[in-house]
Amino acid sequence: MMRGGKIISKEALLVLGFMSAIAMAGAQSLLPGNMETIDVVTLSDGSLTATFVDNKAMGTQHKAGYNGIASLTHSELDLSVFVRDYAGFNLEHIFGGDSLIELFEPRRLPMQLFQPGEHEAWLYQARTRLSNVESLTKFRLTEPHFIDVDFQCIIHSDEFFRHGYAGMFWASYIDRPLDKGIYFIGYEGRGNDPQWIEAYSPKHGEVSTHRAVLEKDSFYFAPNFNATLASHFSKFHFEKPFYYGRFHDMVLAYFFDTDQVIRFSQSPTGGGPDNPAWDFQFLIPNFVINQVYSFRARIIYKPFISAEEIVSEYEKWMKDQH
Predict the structure, then answer these.
(1) What is the pLDDT of residue 26?
(2) Cα torsion angle, 235, 238, 241, 245, sign
(3) Would you call 243 helix, strand, or coil by DSSP?
(4) CA–CA distance, 160 with 110 (Å, rounded to integer)
(5) pTM metric for this prediction
(6) Disulfide engineering: 186 pairs with which of 42, 238, 254, 278, CB 3.0-4.6 Å?
(7) How far does Cα 244 stand from its chain's mean position?
């Protein structure tokens, strides 16, 4: 199709259609203004180099349908921690408890990528056609080995979410680590003595999600709910919202700061037979239509020293947030 003398792709038409729908509805939008979209951007700061992508294919290796961080390397190791066919911090599912008609809705629809600053990448998705969720993810590389993330979303309709909550799921596909487990401080059951938990899911969709010990909400899942990683629970409960995994001599850690519900999920084969997925969920109970919801996160990727160092990094980051 021609628009103003230029050929408009099918994906661009979808974005324009979603943007028009938002404007017609009079709802607020998270869409960044006065910035040009880009297809891919590689940023470096401190010891990290990260490549950010939307849902389009990149080159001959990165596949379409995967967004977020296509590659993450450190000056100490030139291998990407994420499977290059796929991505890390990849927005994968939007769910409300019913079996999903379109399992990978946020992956299937177009996204827009922006670079507002030297060390920043923003990833925007207009109102999705089934769940009516609009989102903006702001990534910022921070010295010496951090990626700071600010996620925002607006739920424009409650028609899709019939059970009183909205859920979103992110996947990170790890490239053949020797240790496929994730580590966090928590409890087996709900005991009184927190300890380091090494969590490992023996099979995709089995004991795959770990909840916070203080989580009080009970979220509905239909018997035939098909995003199985999100609904099959382990016996472990974490004390604070952070976890890490090992990659060669490195550590990849995810920290979260939110008043909403965070859950950890994992699969031993999410990215292929040797490639586990280290995932997480963000759930919003009793949400209000057209209100902005958000969480902040920090990704750490650096040489591994000790579990205690990860705790110190988390506590320092949390102190800086308040």
Answers:
(1) 46
(2) negative
(3) strand
(4) 20
(5) 0.90
(6) 238
(7) 15
Phi, psi of 14 (to 5 degrees): -60, -45
Q: Under a CB-based contact definition with an 8 Å cutoff, are residues 168 and 160 in contact?
A: no
- For position 58, what pLDDT does the model report? 87
* Dihedral over Cα of 112, 116, 122, 128: its sign: negative
Q: In which residue ranges of the chain is pLDDT below 70?
A: 1-27, 191
As a whole number of angstroms, the distance between CA 45 and CA 147 comes to: 10
Residue 106 φ then ψ, to 5°: -70, -20
**137 neighbors 293 (Cβ within 8 angstroms):** no
Residue 59, pLDDT score: 80
Q: Alpha carbon of 108 to those of 65, 83, 84: distances in Å?
A: 6, 19, 18
Largest distance between two CA atoms of the chain: 67
Pairwise CA distance, residues 239 & 271, whole Å: 28
- Residue 291 is assigned to a structural domain of this protein: yes
Q: Is residue 285 assigned to a domain? A: yes
Q: What is the CATH number of the domain that holds 194?
A: 2.70.98.10
Rounded-to-5 percentages of helix, strand, coil across the chain: 10, 45, 45
Residue found under tokens 């038409």: 13
Q: What is the pLDDT of residue 27?
A: 60
Name residue 2's amino acid: M
